[in-house]
């Protein structure tokens, strides 16, 4: 019905326009449809399409609607209900050409139901679970009238000082690339034009995770080989999976800001990779070209960005203002603007909005009576995915699982922390709907619960840090201190511990500590909480640390002090229930680290797949004149791929089907996995390959495949991996992607360090 009306409209307008061709608008042919529409657009209307505007609570709605009706806005972000967005779409339908708006939002790890943070999702190594989280997010977001998300965030992060480590999928190119594709498919479902899908806009293109020193917004300086080999593949994987959009990074790359980078945007993204979708700037990034020092003023910034191929200006202040003058002065071409407009319109077409501008807004009478209704949440999915994402780091003397009959003291500033449970970028999630650890354990223990609770410590005792974390939340601070003196809190917790059989301490970071603009110089648990841990340890009671944090922490002392450590990250709406499931053994943990945990900040970077060096350190041998730090143990505290289970697994009988591989052949690598323990459980069998000699230095190993396998207690299974020439390819010094003949080591393990090895020769 709507489709017909719209067609009718374009026919009428076309017959009135200068380019009257009297042909029906060819809705089914995207290119022809857009060309036809563009012929009717004025310059102002075209530039309007390039403006993406944030709808804050303070924004005068009437003014926004006027601007939309005048054709001056192409899309908005941060307005997230049907009731909010419908009047804006109505305004667009009153505009001369009735070009629909799109509505965007940062749907990163859930929309109303919050799933674990992306780093946690990656820890599951479970592609079905990750897909499920993205699909639910898309359905919920689409049901709230959203058309596009600025996700997935696939920046490789190898420096945990960077606060946005939480928002990505870790340090490994292969794992992050796999997840990138899964997330795009999950968001876009049967197609970005489906009513229950949202378009994915992969970010931050490119290399944002490599900001120098892990300091947010800092520069990136990187060799082309490293880019192509390690950092670019995840973006490419998202695009190959069909991502309709790309968000351009805030950082510079080798001296040129991404937002003004014609090599990045034209040569690589569009020419080399064939990307045909929408390129959106990050928030205010065009203006920031002045601060980067590549544009003298706003006019030059707008020129550089449009020339580089930034289609849409997020939180625009410059495209609307400067593009008309730049065109008039001949400093930019009409085609610069037209190319960008074409991509915005194409994205709207792909989102199904020309066929039905109300595709996701729906009819007013169908609006949910209560946006926050429990019935709109997907709690069962969130709980299941959350428990799959937790990593058991320590479990001495089988401290875990806990017996429900035990008397448990629950302490720590994160035990009752509904906001932190959700993690940062928690979209439309509501703290009031998240299950805290206290709630989850209480529920699991039932009516007879003897849980003893004491806060024990504040998140931090450092006023400066506290003020920083609450900077944006003056009305209702996120991190609320217990005003009692630190020692009083500790004494109370110690008393609780003394009355209990076992102590569970929920410690780590508040969610704001692992967020945009939250780079840290230390990776330890804040001092106030470390004092608490020390005091708890001194009670002699078995101590379980439940960690909540958004990045690897350095846990050297805690590894000694705690009997068990469960890394739960920020686990989302159902976090408390999911953690309780793991603590009480209703779920056997199966997560593996997607990023190495360093012993100290000084060790960074500790990523496992580093390049070979001429003087490698050999464990067990003296370190002199080898590559290491002499004042600490070499290697990470917990390696990439590491994670324990309540059961035991063994790997035996690793074998290769041949000691040679032809360029067109296949090699089978197999290993026997056995559950030698007493519980059923899942683990991740990981395949690593080392190219021993190459024309350029190669990594000491690289993840190439993995399987998440469920085995009953006592069960055994032979796991097979297929290796082909494709798995051996890399970018050489000329950036040619090819495999080189020679020796390859194949390693199979349950983490990246403890592996079995066999070798073969590529002929
Ligand atoms: C972030 C982006 C985000 C945007 C809109 C920026 O500050 O860097 O990742 O999509 O804000 O919220």
Automatic annotation (TrEMBL):
Keywords: Glycosidase, Hydrolase, Signal
Signal peptide bounds: 1-20
Entry's EC annotation: 3.2.1.21
Enzyme class name: hydrolase
Taxonomic superkingdom: Bacteria
Pfam families linked: Fn3-like, Glyco_hydro_3, Glyco_hydro_3_C
GO molecular function: beta-glucosidase activity
Domain Fibronectin type III-like, chain residue ranges per copy: 683-752
Keyword Signal attributed: yes
Family: Belongs to the glycosyl hydrolase 3 family.
Protein name per UniProt: beta-glucosidase
Organism expressing this protein natively: Pseudomonas tehranensis
Gene name of the record: bglX
């Amino acid at each position: 019905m709507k489709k017909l009306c719209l067609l009718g409209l374009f026919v009428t307008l076309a017959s009135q326009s200068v380019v009257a061709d009297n042909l029906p608008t060819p809705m089914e042919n995207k290119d022809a449809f857009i060309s036809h529409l563009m012929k009717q657009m004025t310059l102002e209307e075209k530039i309007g399409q390039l403006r993406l505007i944030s709808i804050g609570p303070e924004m005068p709605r009437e003014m926004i609607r006027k601007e939309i009706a005048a054709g001056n806005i192409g899309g908005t972000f941060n307005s997230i209900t049907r009731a909010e967005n419908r009047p804006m779409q109505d305004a667009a339908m009153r505009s001369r050409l009735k070009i629909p708006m799109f509505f965007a939002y940062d749907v990163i790890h859930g929309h109303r139901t919050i799933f674990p943070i992306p780093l946690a999702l990656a820890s599951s190594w479970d592609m079905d679970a990750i897909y499920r989280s993205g699909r639910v997010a898309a359905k919920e977001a689409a049901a709230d009238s959203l058309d596009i998300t600025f996700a997935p965030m696939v920046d490789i992060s190898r420096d945990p000082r960077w606060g946005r480590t939480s928002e990505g999928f870790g340090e490994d190119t292969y794992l992050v690339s796999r997840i990138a594709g899964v997330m795009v498919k999950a968001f876009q479902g049967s197609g970005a034009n489906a009513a229950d899908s949202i378009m994915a806009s992969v970010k931050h293109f490119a290399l944002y995770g490599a900001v120098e020193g892990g300091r947010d917004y800092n520069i990136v300086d990187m060799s082309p080989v490293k880019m192509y080999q390690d950092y670019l593949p995840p973006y490419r994987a998202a695009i190959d999976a069909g991502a309709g959009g790309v968000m351009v990074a805030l950082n510079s790359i080798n001296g040129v800001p991404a937002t003004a980078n014609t090599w990045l945007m034209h040569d690589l993204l569009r020419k080399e990779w064939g990307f045909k979708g929408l390129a959106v700037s990050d928030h205010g990034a065009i203006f920031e070209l002045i601060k980067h020092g590549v544009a003298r003023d706003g006019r030059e910034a707008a020129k550089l960005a449009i020339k580089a191929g930034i289609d849409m200006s997020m939180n625009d202040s410059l495209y609307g203002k400067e593009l008309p003058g730049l065109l008039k002065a001949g400093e930019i071409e009409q085609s610069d603007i037209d190319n960008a407009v074409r991509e915005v319109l194409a994205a709207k077409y792909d989102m199904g909005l020309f066929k039905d501008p109300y595709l996701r807004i729906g009819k007013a009478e169908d609006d949910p009576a209560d946006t926050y209704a429990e019935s709109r949440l997907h709690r069962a999915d969130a709980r299941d995915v959350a428990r799959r994402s937790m990593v058991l780091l320590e479990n001495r003397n089988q401290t875990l699982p806990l017996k429900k009959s035990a008397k448990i003291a629950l302490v720590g500033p994160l035990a009752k922390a509904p906001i932190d449970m959700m993690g940062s970028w928690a979209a439309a999630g509501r703290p009031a709907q998240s299950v805290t650890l206290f709630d989850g354990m209480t529920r699991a223990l039932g009516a007879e619960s003897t849980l003893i609770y004491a806060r024990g410590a504040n998140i931090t005792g450092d006023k400066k840090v506290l003020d920083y974390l609450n900077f944006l939340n003056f009305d209702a601070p996120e991190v609320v201190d217990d005003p009692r003196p630190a020692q009083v809190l500790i004494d109370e917790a110690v008393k609780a511990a003394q009355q209990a059989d076992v102590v569970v301490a929920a410690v780590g970071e508040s969610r704001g500590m692992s967020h945009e603009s939250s780079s840290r110089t230390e990776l330890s648990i804040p001092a106030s909480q470390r004092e608490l841990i020390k005091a708890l340890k001194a009670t002699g009671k078995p101590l379980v640390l439940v960690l909540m944090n958004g990045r690897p922490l350095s846990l050297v002392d805690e590894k000694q002090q705690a009997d068990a450590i469960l890394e739960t990250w920020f686990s989302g709406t159902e976090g408390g229930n999911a953690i309780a499931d793991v603590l009480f053994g209703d779920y056997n943990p199966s997560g593996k680290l997607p990023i190495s945990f360093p012993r100290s900040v000084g060790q960074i970077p500790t990523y496992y797949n580093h390049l070979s060096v001429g003087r490698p350190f050999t464990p067990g041998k003296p370190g002199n004149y080898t590559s290491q730090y002499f004042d600490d143990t070499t290697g990470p505290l917990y390696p990439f791929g590491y994670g324990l289970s309540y059961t035991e697994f063994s790997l035996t009988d690793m074998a290769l089907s041949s000691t040679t591989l032809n360029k067109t052949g296949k090699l089978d690598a197999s290993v026997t996995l056995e559950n030698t323990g007493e519980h059923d459980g899942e683990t991740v069998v990981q395949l690593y390959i080392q190219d021993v000699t190459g024309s350029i230095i190669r990594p000491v190993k690289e993840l190439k495949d993995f399987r998440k396998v469920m085995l009953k207690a006592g069960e055994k299974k032979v796991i097979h991996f297929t290796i082909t020439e494709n798995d051996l390819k890399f970018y050489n010094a000329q950036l040619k992607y090819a495999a080189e003949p020679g020796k390859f080591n194949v390693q199979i393990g349950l983490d990246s360090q403890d592996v079995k090895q066999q070798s073969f020769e590529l002929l």
